[in-house]
Amino acid sequence: MTQHSDVLSDLVAEGDALEALLADAGETEWARPTPAEGWSVRHQVAHLIMVFGLAEKAAEDPAGFKAFLAGITTFGEAVQNGLKPYLPLEGAQLIETWRTQRAATERALNRVPQERLVPWLVRPIPAAVLAAAGIMEMFAHGQDIADALEVERQYTDRVRHVAEYTCLTWEFGYESHGLPRPRNGLRFELTAPSGQTWTLGALDAEQQITGPAVDLCLLATRRRHRDDLALTASGPDADQWLDIAQAYRGPTGPGRRPGQFARAGR
């Protein structure tokens, strides 16, 4: 992963970029449906508030966070219940709540010593990895918001954190589909928005994924179907992975349809 200080500063920058997407949103825009079935723009921001609240609790109160996890019956139910306090808010109230929560989460993660692990949904992780998970959440739900508002998103090399997080969680798709994980990992040869080449994952792996880093992030957050992306698989395991890639824990959901965003293809 990239340096602790880099990912924490990029977490702030990504939060600023997400707020900029919503700067001129009125109540009509907040109510717009997003590509996530049943979710409006308001749902997307409410979800981010909930997730960042959990991250703050994990960093500040590990015992309380573990108690919260122990009380969850199903992951989907926990997500839906977590939205309820925020959905009645008007747009201006919601963005202010998001601004306050993300600032609190940023402070909490900055206070965690670099060597200390923080409890999270699957296993304890460093604060830098939890920050990368936060960037992944903003990338995914920010994409839904941009699609709903018909805004063309400007990607930066900060997507590296999402790509690296995808490489760390590459097995999640197999778990969600009840499939055995291949013995060997995958190598990722990616082109950054700046044009740089990033080599990530299992560097000595024979099978690999190549293509734009942004496309990998869109695939792994299930915001685009593989048919609408410029990713290439070398090897049968790599090809299967493109069908099941998932950078987050929990149900896969329907994802996006082939051709749904073909005109916005990269």
Summarize the topology.
Elements: H1 4-21, H2 27-30, H3 41-60, H4 62-70, H5 75-83, H6 91-111, E1 117-118, E2 125-126, H7 127-149, H8 159-168, H9 172-177, E3 187-191, E4 197-201, E5 208-212, H10 213-220, E6 232-234, H11 236-244
Parallel strand pairs: 3-5
Antiparallel strand pairs: 1-2, 3-4, 5-6
The gist of it:
This protein has 266 residues and is of the alpha+beta class. Helices cover 52% and strands 8% of the residues.
Which outline best applies? globular
Poorly predicted regions = none
Summed up, the helix count is 11
Mean pLDDT: 93
What is the number of beta strands? 6
User: What's the CATH topology name of the largest domain?
Assistant: Four Helix Bundle (Hemerythrin (Met), subunit A)
Number of domains: 2
Strand portion, in percent? Answer: 5-15%
The major beta sheet can be summarized as:
4 strands, mixed
Overall SS class: alpha+beta
What's the assembly state of these chains? single chain
What percent of residues adopt helix (DSSP H or I)?
40-55%
Q: What's the Cα radius of gyration?
A: 18 Å
Describe the protein's architecture and organization.
- This protein starts with a helix and ends in a 22-residue tail after the last helix.
- The chain folds into 2 domains: 4-149, Four Helix Bundle (Hemerythrin (Met), subunit A); 159-264, Nonspecific Lipid-transfer Protein, Chain A (2-Layer Sandwich).
- The protein is globular and about 50 Å long.
- The longest helix is centred in the middle third of the chain and has 23 residues, at 127-149.
- It has helices spanning 4-21, 27-30, 41-60, 62-70, 75-83, 91-111, 127-149, 159-168, 172-177, 213-220, 236-244; strands spanning 117-118, 125-126, 187-191, 197-201, 208-212, 232-234.
- With 266 residues, the chain is of the alpha+beta class.
- It is built from 11 helices and 6 strands.
